[in-house]
Amino acid sequence: MSQEEIDLLLKGESSKPQDTTVISDLEKDAIGEICNISMGTAATTLSNLIGKKVEITTPRVKLTTRNQLQMDYPMPYVVVNVRYTAGLIGENLFVIKERDAAVIVDLMMGGDGSNLPEELNELHLSAISEAMNQMMGSASTSMSTIFNKTVNISPPSLRLVNFAEEQIDDLEDGDEKLIQVNFKMFIEDLVDSEMMQILPVKFAKEISRGLLGQLDESPAPANAEVPGEALESRPLQDRAQPVRGGGGVPVQPVQFVPFDTIPTQPKETANLTLILDVSLQFSVELGRTHKTIKEILELGPGSIVELEKLAGEPVDVLVNGKPIAKGEVVVIDENYGVRITEILSSAERLDKLQ
After folding, report:
1. pLDDT in tens, 125-163
2. In angstroms, how far is CA 114 from the centroid of its own chain?
3. Does residue 245 or residue 300 have the better pLDDT?
4. Which comes out higher in pLDDT, residue 79 or 243?
5. In the chain, what are the helix, strand and coil shares in percent, each to the nearest 5?
6. What is the DSSP string of 38-81?
7. List of residues 6+ apart from 138 with CB closer than 8 A
8. Which burial class, exposed, middle or buried, applies to 276 when counting CB atoms under 10 A from its CB (0-12, 13-18, 19+)?
9. Residue 210 has pLDDT above 90, yes or no
10. Is the separation of the CB atoms in 124 and 157 below 8 Å?
11. Region label for 71, one of left (φ > 0), alpha (ψ between -120 and 50) or beta (otherwise)
């Protein structure tokens, strides 16, 4: 045995190189947490694209192989390759069933999710590619927040793969072992299925180090003073003083605005244009009355229902069921209409909302 090998043994180290294809439970947890956050954001983006509620459950992370994937999932899938170009360098795959992709395509094209194409053509794959591009773009934004640095991706590429006939060969990393992350995906009553994220072990380790490294960079000392507890135990007049945490970092107590200084009326903001195309229900109420069940059952054609308002009295104009104005009924080209005669004041509208 050489002196170098003896020195390594004395230090508790081995002369054999570490197996980079093995991943620890801690690394699996870190990968699962990152995927959970990023895919949650992607689900929200998909929901906005198709106009349906999308739910993705907590991921399950495990070590697998290319051969094992082929045996476990002998079905046609849409495989989307996402390459990270900044912040993280590497690539991973998102795998969804062909039928699930067809449902998403139909919804994106204005359908109800039931008129599915027999097979996905270039137009359908282009639509899925655009959906995945937006989903992965929002996911990379979430990862930028997690890692506190810019994370960019290139436009995703996708293709149909029949796992019964071929293995995954879209990843440049040629290792047999892969990290498989499984999610349950629900799209209202249309999809109850599963999607996968496939990562090379080396890239998965890089991602997990990004999170675990941040957690290790600034551990809180055991004797660090907790600002909330410190303030609670101090006299009232001393609570405005800065509280020092570990490392001498000044920590200021939160300052709340007194309630009497908060304006009671909403202020117009510069971002009002962002919601100008939001649809609201606009209705006019002629009047109301109360009837017993017996009186309602006695109603028939020709019955007259008296309202609490007098003839000619202004009618209420409502938006989403809340009064905002008063008006008078007019007839325009044989259609009923309402002429606005009064806009309720801000105080009156605020009172109606309560």
Report:
1. 888 888 888 888 888 888 888 888 888 888 888 888 887
2. 25
3. 300
4. 79
5. 35, 25, 40
6. HHHHHHHHHHHHHTS-EEE---EEEEEEHHHHHHH--SEEEEEE
7. 41, 42, 44, 45
8. exposed
9. no
10. no
11. alpha
Q: How confident is the model at residue 350 (pLDDT cuts 50, 70, 90)?
A: low
Domain residue ranges in the chain: 11-216, 280-298+307-353
Would the CATH topology of 11-216 be identical to that of 280-298+307-353?
Answer: no
Architecture of the domain delimited by 280-298+307-353:
Roll (2.30)
- pLDDT tens for 81-107 read 888 888 888 888 889 998 999 999 888
CATH class of segment(s) 11-216: alpha beta
pLDDT band at 232 (very low <50, low <70, confident <90, very high): very low
Whole-angstrom CA distances from 144 to 44, 88, 156 are 17, 10, 18
User: How far, in whole angstroms, is CA 113 from its chain's centroid?
Assistant: 21
Q: Which amino acid does the sequence have at 239?
A: R
CA dist., res. 31 & res. 28, Å (int)? 5
Amino acid at 172: E
Q: What letter would DSSP give residue 265? A: S
Q: Which residues pair with 61 in a beta bridge?
A: 181
- SS3 state at 236: helix
Give long-range contacts, CB 8 A cutoff, 24+ apart: 189-195.
190/52, 190/103, 190/107, 190/113, 190/114, 191/100, 191/103, 191/113, 193/96, 193/97, 193/99, 193/100, 194/97, 195/56, 195/94, 195/95, 195/96, 195/97, 195/100
Cα(8)–Cα(209) distance, integer angstroms:
25
Band (pLDDT 50/70/90 cuts) for residue 286 is confident
Mean pLDDT of the chain: 77
> Is the model's pTM score more than 0.70?
no
Beta strands 90-97 and 157-162, pairing class = unpaired
